[in-house]
Every structure is written in C-alpha cells, then in structure tokens.
Amino acid sequence: MLPSGEGWAFAPSSVQSVRRLPTEKEIHKENRLTPNLPDYKKAYKGFQWEAVRTELGLVPPVNLASKAVDQHASSWRRNKVALYWEGAEGQNCKYTFYELKNESNRIGNMLLNLGVRRGDRVFVFLPRIPELYTSVIGIAKIGAVAGPMFSAFGPEALRDRLLDSGAKVLITHTSLRERIHRVWDELPELRHVIVVGASTSGGHMPLRKGEVSFEREVEKSSRGLEVEDMDLEDPLYILYTSGTTGKPKGVVHVHHDMLSHYITSRWVLDLKEEDVYWCTADPGWVTGTVYGIWGPWLNGCSQVTFEGRFDAEHWYSIIERYGVTVWYTAPTALRMLMKAGPEVVKKYNLKSLRYILSVGEPLNPEVIRWGMEVFGLCIHDTWWQTETGAIMIANYPSMPVRPGSMGKPFPGTEAAIIDGKGNKLPPGSSGILALKPGWPSMMRALWGDEKRYKEYFTIPGWYTTGDTAHMDKEGYFWFIGRADDVIMTAGHRVGPFEVESALVEHRAVAEAGVIGKPDPERGEIIKAFIVLRHGHKPSRELEEEIKEFIRHRLSAHAYPREIQFMDGIPKTRSGKIMRRLLKARELGLPEGDLSTLED
Ligand code: WTA
Fold it and tell me: Which of 92, 100, 334, 579 gives 20 to 30 Å between its CA and that of 496?
C-alpha cells in the first residue's frame, strides 16, 4: 500500500503555481491503470463487509473523523495536501492532513470549552470556506453530531432544522448571522452562536449576547485533543431532506457509515493516491458531506473545494489550475457547461481529468455524448439518496456504460424493482425501486420521528426509495421518476409542502400549490399556483416580490421560478392540494381519477 510518493509530491507548493499537466501519453497510461474495482461481477458475488472492515482497519471503539484525518496525519501522508481551497474572490490556501488534524482539534476543544458534550447537536451554517470542513471534523471528534446546512438557507429553513434537532450550538459566518438573529427567539435550546470572521485583523465586530468569536475561541484552544471513542452506532451527522408532506426530515447517520464511505469512494470514484479530486457539491447536501468530506479523506485523497457559485470559465480553470483528475458533479452543472459552448472549453487544458461522475438527477445520454467529445471521457452516473448514506447504484470504471442507465447495485447491496406487495418484478417492468435493508450507511433514524422513519419500510423486507425505475435483462437500472411529489431542481431535493407553507406567509397569498415542472437545463423547476387574498391583484411586480420573499425566507434554491395566479386550487374533499392534477393540467396530460376532487 505504500505509495511511490511521486504522485502527490508533484502537488504545487502554492496553489497559485501551475500544476505540471500530464502529457496525452501519460493520460492514456493513467486511463489504463487498473481500476480499483477490476471485475464488478466477481466483486459482487464474493463481497463481504467483513473484508472492508479489515482493509480499513476498523476496530471499535473508533471515531470516523480520526480515521479520516488523524490517521493520515500520523502516517507518511502527514504533509500531503488534504484540502486545496479556492475562495469566491480567487483567494486560496491549502491544508495538509497534519494541519487539518490540528485545526479540527482546536475546534473540538473550543466546543468542549463551551460545554458541548457527546451526542449534542452542533449545526454548521457557513459558506464553503475551510472552517466549514474543519468544524464538521472537530464536531465529530468530540462525539457531537454535526448538522451541515446550505448557506443559501433563509431564516425559515434554519429555524425548522435547529428547532427540530434541538441544536445547542451553531457555527456561522458574519455574512450569514443576521438570518439566525431573526429566528433565535424561537430556538430555546440554542445556547451559543459561534461567528467566523467576527474578529479579523481589521478589528472586532460587536457581538450579541450568546455569540462568540470563532477566531478568538479557537486561538484560546489547545491543539491537543483526546478524540472521543465512539460506538459504531453512535450518530455522526444529521442532514435534513424533503418528503412530500410535512417539514424536512432529519436523516441520522452513524460512525458505522465509514465502511460504505470508504469502499464506495474506492470502487466507484476510483480514487487513487495521486488523484486530485473535486466534488462540486456543498456539504449542505449529502453528496458534499459524504463525497466532499468523509469518503475521499478516509482514502487519504487530496480534495479541491471552491467557495464560489457555478461559472463555466471558472470551473474549467479550476480543473486546469489544480490538475483535477477525478471530478464528481451533477447533470445540471454539466448541462450548463454544455450550454456555455465549445469555444469556452477550448480555452482550457483539461487533460488532467481521467474520471468524471455524476449524481442527483437523470444524466441524459446527450450529455454523455458531449462529455465524450469535449473531455474524451465517459461520464459515469451514480444513484443514491440522503437516506442511503452512500452510493447504491453506479457505473463502474470496469463496466461498459449504457447511456441513460444509473448502472448496477454496489457490491454488498441488493436492489430490485418491486410491486406494492414486495414481489420482485421481471426485467423490463417498471415498479418501485427498493433496496434490501442492512448496508452500513443506511440511515438509522429520522430525528424524533419514528413514524415517518417506518414509512420507508412498510413493504416487508424492503427499504423503499420513493423512486420508480426498471431493470434490463443484464441488470442495469434505469430511472423513471419519483413516486411522490418531491421536486428535484438542479439536483436539489425540494418538498412542495415547504414551499407552499412559506408562500402562504406572504401577505398577499391566500393559497398555494407547488409542483416540479420539467425543464431542459435544471431537470425540474419549481412552479407555484397561487390564489391571492382579497384586495390583491395579479401583477408582474407582485410575482417578483413573492419570488424574492421565498428566496430570502426559505432558500435561494427553492424559490418558484414560475408563478401562475388562479382563482382556486384543486383540492380533495379532505382539503389536500391535488398537485398531481395541477401537474397534469400544466403538462397537458390525462387528469386521471377525479372522484376525490372537492366540488
Ligand atoms: C434523485 C442525492 C436520477 C432520486 C444523492 C433520488 C437521481 C433523489 C440520481 C435523492 C440519478 C439521485 N438519476 N435520479 N443518478 N441520483 N437521484 O437525497 O430521485 O438529495 O431519490 O440525494 O435524487 O436525492 P438526495
């Protein structure tokens, strides 16, 4: 397992310097490297989690964070770069595994000093800055439960998550803290808000009661930390995700997940010692936590992270400047790059890339063909969910890709297409996509919501995913759609209920129904049907005002890009909004059974 050392010794001493790019010949050679999973069929047949446990050296009690960071910091990887960070303004820095260990230790100590104990929930509401990564690790090291939240969230989204989880501490940034101030009164369990950027070289920002400065507290804290030994079943992180009804659900994952993180990163992402890996997802979403923090670092891999938003030129330039070799991204981003056109891509040298993966929404064959043209590489689709905690179905480097298919189940997991009674359906039939429960990273609970947790397991013997799909004769799975009303917009999961609840808080909105409307670029966009209160008239200005209201209150990713004003919203006799009918009418599809429609 010892590396030649050469691969990462080439890593730039300063990220501003240009990484030596491999020649075409070298790329060829690289692509002929044996994949970490050379034979899918064989691996699937003989797979045992016990072997992964041995390979990872997993002997409980253990802490995932120290496996992902400290283990490398006290090995020959000590000075290997763990994180290359590029800021939105072009600033940059990097952390070695040794530095990551020290920084996260200090954060662990800071939290202990503030009274955080094992099992407490500490939420993180930060832009994609290094403190986001070091905080999540520091939290896990002291046995607390980390709750990353997307920086676009508004006060409403924050309140729901912090209240439900009973978070004791929140780590945020000066640029975001005002959103917390607006809801803090409603959060009786939130004791401290730690603010990054409050004490800078320019002076100190006045803080409110309960707020502390991240920099000052960290400075006071020691680098020596006794990492908390955890039981494999102890909670590690909580991510909130949307369903059709109700508020977001707090999906609980545990330290045991590391087996899945480690082996899927090895076999699906094909991460190797010398790789420079870039996951474009934010840790507020499960891809950004599992494959932007845990999985790659359990494998001792160098990662790149970019704070800024999507921008075709900037993205290509990151690949070029950092020499990204493995890239995990999403269909919407790929479609936006495709739209940016061939002239843009030609300006950059992207020869360092050797492997590209996608997740979150259907990957169109057209995008795969475009990828072949511009990168000379086949984009590999992967399928999974917040609840599954790791990739479940994938295209592997050693397996031919069928464009449009999500691939085959990961070794150690069984996927099937079933009917409502749990019977497996033959190849070619569409049905419910289900998994046999019991893989290490399966969610352990929905925080405080046993009832909704059980809804995933109502078909005996199966975990049901909420997706419909079919399987072909050779065992490849093909995505059909969601079985529920959950909206997937630009790879983000949005519950219509959350948007509807936020909409009716607007002074002019009496009722609202929300659907996902197919969109060539974003997969789906959010469309809202709105009934106005007496005294308000539809207008362009009001439409814009409502959009802005949702952007700020709920989240920038969850605002309705389209609004249609109506006189009434179709509802069932029991008062439920008939989203299916709204959608059928919008798309000109058959309206189906209307027997429950209210008069
Ligand atoms: C959808 C994201 C088509 C699906 C990791 C799933 C996909 C939901 C794919 C989970 C794919 C994910 N093709 N659809 N390759 N991957 N999805 O929890 O509907 O944010 O149930 O996790 O995204 O979204 P989540």
Answer: 334
Is the distance from the beta carbon of residue 329 to the nearest atom of ligand 1 less than 6 Å? no
Atom of ligand 1 nearest to the CA of 393: 15
pTM over 0.90: yes
Name the DSSP letter for residue 591. -
Q: What is the pLDDT of residues 91-101, one digit of tens each?
A: 999 999 999 99
Q: Please tell me the distance between residue 497's alpha carbon and the centre of ligand 1 in angstroms.
A: 19
C-beta of residue 269 within 8 angstroms of C-beta of residue 325: no
Q: Is the peptide bond before 61 cis (omega within 30 degrees of 0)?
A: yes
CB-ligand 1 contact for 388 (6 Å cutoff): no
Nearest CA to ligand 1 atom 22: 385
For residue 244, the 8-state DSSP code is: S
Give the atom of ligand 1 at the shortest distance from the alpha carbon of 481.
19
409 lines ligand 1 (CB under 6 A): no
Domains of the chain as residue ranges with CATH: 97-255 (3.40.50.12780), 484-587 (3.30.300.30)
For residue 31, the SS3 value is helix
C-alpha of residue 491 to centroid of ligand 1, in Å: 7
pLDDT per position as a tens digit, 105-154: 999 999 999 999 999 999 999 999 999 999 999 999 999 999 999 999 99
pLDDT tens profile 339-367: 999 899 999 999 999 999 999 999 999 99
Token pair of 2 as six digits: 């010892």
Q: Whose CA is nearest to atom 25 of ligand 1?
A: 385
Cβ count within 10 A of residue 588:
6
Q: How far is CA 166 from the centre of its chain?
A: 22
Q: What pLDDT, in 10s, does the model give residues 239-291?
A: 999 988 888 999 999 999 999 999 999 999 999 999 999 999 999 999 999 99
101 CB near ligand 1 (under 6 Å):
no
In sequence order, the 6+-apart residues with CB closer than 8 A to the CB of 166 are 121, 189
